[in-house]
């Protein structure tokens, strides 16, 4: 009887452990809305991973149990409705899979910026902004083949969420693009840590973003960190989860010291909180 009870208890503990382990693998959390993430089962069980495309953009894939699934970043500008993935199997067969995107309305945020050039840049500023945009776009469209991609993050800095993701922004009463990241207010000099393992793609001092770092986590998953006071990493460096990459500041267009943390998946800016426990 004792042996049976012990066996049953052991099986329960093992089952709970298995459930927890499986739950830990299911990050990011799905939220199929503009600025969210769709997780699409592909119905393929091949040993080799398929190549998946959302429009012209390649999509992250991972194995879930015996089959493959796609982790699709949905742009903030995506319209609600039925969308389609193109799947190319290891044997070059082409399949199509559909998924639905639901509508979501984000709140408005009105900010007053004292430096008028940060709202309406002059001609020289625009020349700089266009050049910097090319560098940032090149980093955000980078694709690194990688068998395992860490999709469970830690928060990069301790602080207070000052501006949530997706806010419809107005600077000095003028409409601008939605807020494509998460703003975390913290004291200047607070350390910023890598949320997951990755490779530093590039760093720079940009007009709007200030001191910035971009990290490649594999298969089109890129994170960026803006308005830093100090950068502690260099392009090409490998970083581990929890490793210090810089410090909080208020460089670029910022009304106070904070970190703007962005997550880009298949070149779509998505809600960073979906990657957090």
Please characterize this protein's 3D structure.
By secondary structure, the protein is of the alpha+beta class. The protein is 15% helix and 39% strand. The chain has helices at residues 2-25, 123-140, and strands spanning 37-41, 51-54, 57-64, 67-73, 81-88, 94-101, 108-111, 160-163, 168-171, 174-175, 182-185, 191-193, 198-206, 210-218, 221-231, 238-239, 244-248, 258-265, 268-270. The strands form 3 sheets. Strands 8, 11, 12, 13, 14, 15, 16, 17, 18 and 19 form a 10-stranded antiparallel beta sheet that branches. Strands 1-4-3-2-5-6 form a 6-stranded antiparallel beta sheet, with no helix packed on it. A hairpin with a 5-residue loop joins strand 5 and strand 6 (94-101). Mean pLDDT is 90; it is low at 1-24.
Low-confidence parts: 1-24
CATH architecture of the largest domain: Distorted Sandwich
Number of continuous helical runs:
2
CATH class of the largest domain: Mainly Beta
Present the secondary structure layout.
Layout: H1 2-25, E1 37-41, E2 51-54, E3 57-64, E4 67-73, E5 81-88, E6 94-101, E7 108-111, H2 123-140, E8 160-163, E9 168-171, E10 174-175, E11 182-185, E12 191-193, E13 198-206, E14 210-218, E15 221-231, E16 238-239, E17 244-248, E18 258-265, E19 268-270
Question: Which key terms come to mind for this protein?
Answer:
2 domains, single chain, 277 residues, disordered N terminus, Immunoglobulin-like, alpha+beta, 19 strands, globular, Glucose Permease (Domain IIA), ten-stranded antiparallel beta sheet, six-stranded antiparallel beta sheet
